[in-house]
Amino acid sequence: MEVIRTISDLRARLSGEPRVALVPTMGNIHEGHLSLVHIGHAQAPLVVTSIFVNRLQFGQGEDFDHYPRTFADDCEKLAAAGNHIVFHPDETQLYPEPQVFVVEPPPIANKLEGRFRPGHFRGMATVVLKLFNAVQPQIAVFGKKDYQQISIVRHMVDQFALPLSIVRAETVRAPDGLALSSRNRFLCEVERAEAPRLHRALARVKEQVEAGDLNFEAIEFGADTELARHGWHIDYVVVRSRRTLMQPEDDEKELVVLGAAKLGATRLIDNLEILAP
């Protein structure tokens, strides 16, 4: 497996490659990331995984400096998964000067995650566009765990007429249902045992809606109450349209329940797609 650190070297290496899949990550690779690499491998003969902790998408008080950086271990895992190239630029490569041109995402970026992480999606979309330009892939693979992120990236690709397809990968979970995340390592033993409750609460919402209960406000309140009783600090548990991530229209069937909450000092997110009756 090759490790490439500059855009010029990467472009030279990829010149002439007929089809490339990109897996954008911030490192601290786990089985969820590796599943994206496997999907990329099935879609293209060459897979590039980027590892870059993007300062622009961290807000004030967030964990940029403490975000886990495990590059040597990441490379071992990626090589074993059949990844071909790791693109590992430093900040001088992607931000050689202060970034004054940014991608301004649509209003949905200020709701849900954006309400609690102002500017996050602006920073995310800006670096993803930079990575798309550096790698110039035909395929990019993103996990569904970051549901709002995928929605915004797909919208950006459509509006800028970028010549690539976005592949959405199912969330990879631990046996107890907890969505795999780099932040899970911050959970203490007691918190780790409690953490799957978020998935169970969302699964209960999904079950209720698919059984025909469309009183979303009451269902959401019930999930909030259940989590709060067990010490969670809830940012949101909401049922939304998959298409818009806004309140569903009366006749919409393709929905998603999204949740974000803190357990101790660790903020966890998750979601489940719903097909209403």
Largest sheet: 6 strands, parallel
CATH architecture of the largest domain: 3-Layer(aba) Sandwich
Strand order of the largest sheet: 1-4-3-2-5-6
What is the helix/strand order?
Answer: EHEHEHEHHHEHEHHHEEE
Secondary-structure topology with pairs:
Layout: E1 2-4, H1 7-14, E2 20-25, H2 31-43, E3 46-51, H3 71-80, E4 85-87, H4 91-94, H5 113-116, H6 120-135, E5 139-143, H7 147-159, E6 165-169, H8 189-194, H9 197-210, H10 216-229, E7 233-241, E8 254-263, E9 266-275
Parallel strand pairs: 1-4, 2-3, 2-5, 3-4, 5-6
Antiparallel strand pairs: 7-8, 8-9
Helix pairs in contact: 6-7, 9-10
In short:
The protein is α/β, with parallel strands linked by helices and 277 residues long. The chain has helices spanning 7-14, 31-43, 71-80, 91-94, 113-116, 120-135, 147-159, 189-194, 197-210, 216-229, and strands spanning 2-4, 20-25, 46-51, 85-87, 139-143, 165-169, 233-241, 254-263, 266-275.
Give a written overview of the molecule.
The chain is α/β, with parallel strands linked by helices. The chain has 2 domains: about 170 residues, 3-Layer(aba) Sandwich (Rossmann fold); about 90 residues, Pantoate--beta-alanine Ligase, Chain: A,domain 2 (2-Layer Sandwich), CATH 3.30.1300. Helices cover about 35% and strands about 20% of the residues. The protein has 10 helices and 9 strands. The strands form 2 sheets. It has a 6-stranded parallel β-sheet, sandwiched between helices. A 3-stranded antiparallel β-sheet has the order 7-8-9, covered by helices on one side. Helix 3 links the parallel strand 3 and strand 4. The chain is globular and about 55 Å long.
